[in-house]
Amino acid sequence: xxxxxxxxxxxxxxxxxxxxxxxxxxxxxxxxxxxxxxxxxxxxxxxxxxxxxxxxxxxxxxxxxxxxxxxxxxxxxxxxxxxxxxxxxxxxxxxxxxxxxxxxxxxxxxxxxxxxxxxxxxxxxxxxxxxxxxxxxxxxxxxxxxxx
Length: 148
Description:
single chain; 148 residues; alpha/beta; Rossmann fold; six-stranded parallel sheet; 4 helices; 22% strand; flavoprotein; electron transport; Flavdoxin-like
């Protein structure tokens, strides 16, 4: 059975809720899932994963969440060549060009590890609603189809 590992950062609870939705969707697809808050893990958390997921919000003018900075910096040094990755961002479109910037930064950081992008990044405004849940399901379905 494939193993999915999800790391998230959440200030308001929106991104944590998104990570829970993704966790449930992977479980429903029959995959094993471990989901952890970013301050509880190191980048080697992904070492035994088949699918690596980061769910993050963006702070201020396109900045990484403070609690995610060390994880982000250290991730670049990991060898994830045989892994799939996916990134989900939550944010507020009032920030214009900075909307979900941290998620875009994580996509680039994952590429430096040699991991393969298994699904296109999903951007969600604030809290996930019904339409967002459908988009997250498509994201999960893409990843599952590539790991099977």
